Amino acid sequence: LAHLLTLEGLPASILTAILDTAAPFTEVGEREVKKLPLLRGKSVFNVFFENSTRTRTTFEIAAKRLSADVINLNVSTSSTSKGETLLDTVDNLCAMGADMFVMRHASSGAPYLLAQHLRATGRDHISVVNAGDGRHAHPTQGLLDMYTIRHYKKDFTNLTVAVVGDVLHSRVARSEIAALTTLGVPEVRVIGPKTLLPTDVERMGVRVFHDMREGLKGVDVVMMLRLQNERMQGALLPSSQEYFKVWGLTPEKLALAKPDAIVMHPGPMNRGVEIDSAVADGGNAVILPQVTFGIAVRMAVMSMLAGH
Length: 308
Ligand code: CP
Hints:
L-aspartate binds at residues 82, 171, 226. This protein has 308 residues and is α/β, with parallel strands linked by helices. The protein is 37% helix and 14% strand.
């Protein structure tokens, strides 16, 4: 791997190799295990042009556990506010010795632009990890979600998985669906109102449900999505209460899934909008383990990009 920009098009062998590489890293950080030296002497630049709690922090923890130097660019106080372009900013960070960029950006394709620029300027040794670009892709979220499913369900090839809510504006959903289909999940369901699903959603290889109760029947995994209001300029939105009534995951709706179904959410959650607190904090939820697994998965991605 030179960069990790998307999961679409990556073969099952690479996805599985990342999950397998992550497995022993779940132990790193426990008291008895020391830091690993795999990124010693490397500088990882976290460049987040959009807010983040989980992704930015777990990338930082992961890089530090691999012994990298981590530099977090505070974009809101950086010179981008004085008109400096993305590529000029990147050139300056390269001049400071960057070996890897972890980039989040509101514009779909921004990490591709960065990777292309590095190639065009002869800096192929610098890797780019997409930490979420617009509504396009969030590959490490997709990977940590696959890790979580494999941890709890062991085998992808006998599962029914439902992705529920605002798929249209969700980079997480695109990465999840790409990974689920590549890893051989026989039935991926997408559940949501027509207005929040892409018009060509069937081309993603999924079964579409506009009735949440129908869609949840017998599923093994429920992956909830929040309403991504920040990407809905001008859209006529239902109120939170209206949305919750029809599309919120309540204990009563979850009872239609298999009794041992796991409930996932990439975060941030909006309680009382797409998910009831009784579900978010209930026995089927694996939402916080997802966050923890994210550290190991990001360690795997960064160590593989560094050639290990
Ligand atoms: N899941 C996710 O990307 O969360 P953050 O926006 O907090 O990073």
